[in-house]
């Protein structure tokens, strides 16, 4: 089985939150200028494209990336199809969390990474509790937030953090079938940061 890249490519067209920093890359020095190398620069929000939220993103005293456990970011994941659901419920999760440490949810919302959605399906608080009772330590979604787009209180972010469940947003899952996979979802070690881009890859687990 080959690894599947589920990372949104970063480019100038990728959708961002209203008022947030848009992504740009530029070559600030060329090989012709330096005599040896090309040198590039990026400008971006830490919540552009596929990224992980640190608790500091929504809690003043929350942890940042140097305090998070990378073991959570490598392991077994269940990809769940929620494309026919308006919200992510406990019933949807039942029977799909055995022997995995993470859950990725494929929704019907995000078909184009260049268009920011007006509405997104979110987890119910009952579903978050169910994740915690099954020892899930990381969740990923294919939308920009685990909360409603216009939420200011972010109840699902806080509920997940209460159970120490890491949050990955803007995964690219439209080409991924439901099932069990191996995953690698590693954030950059940006000290003191509220978010980080990740390179997310998965590989189908072989049947025993």
Automatic annotation (TrEMBL):
Identification of the protein by name: Arylformamidase
Entry keyword Metal-binding: yes
GO function term, MF aspect, one: metal ion binding
Organism: Lysinibacillus alkalisoli
One Pfam assignment: Cyclase
Gene name as annotated: kynB
Cofactor(s) essential for the protein: Zn(2+)
NCBIfam families in the cross-refs: trp_arylform (TIGR03035)
UniProt keyword annotations, A-Z: Hydrolase, Metal-binding, Tryptophan catabolism, Zinc
InterPro entries (UniProt xref): KFase/CYL, KFase_sf, Kynurenine_formamidase_bac
């Amino acid at each position: 089985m080959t690894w599947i890249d589920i990372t949104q490519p970063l480019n100038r067209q990728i959708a961002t939150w209203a008022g947030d920093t848009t992504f740009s890359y530029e070559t600030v020095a060329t090989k012709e200028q330096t005599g040896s190398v090309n040198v590039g620069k990026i400008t971006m929000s830490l919540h552009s494209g596929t990224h992980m939220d640190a608790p500091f993103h929504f809690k003043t005293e929350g942890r940042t990336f140097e305090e998070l456990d990378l073991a959570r970011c490598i392991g077994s994941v269940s990809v769940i199809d929620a494309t026919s659901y308006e919200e992510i419920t406990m019933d949807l999760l039942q029977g799909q969390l055995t022997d995995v440490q993470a859950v990725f949810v494929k929704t019907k919302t995000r078909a184009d990474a260049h268009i920011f959605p007006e509405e997104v399906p979110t987890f119910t608080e009952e579903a978050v509790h169910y994740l915690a009772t099954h020892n899930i330590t990381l969740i990923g979604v294919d939308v920009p937030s685990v909360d409603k787009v216009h939420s200011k209180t972010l109840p699902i972010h806080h509920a997940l953090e209460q159970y120490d469940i890491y949050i990955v947003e803007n995964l690219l899952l439209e080409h991924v079938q439901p099932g069990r996979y191996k995953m690698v979802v590693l954030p950059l070690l940006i000290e003191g940061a509220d978010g980080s881009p990740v390179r997310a890859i998965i590989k189908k687990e072989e049947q025993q």
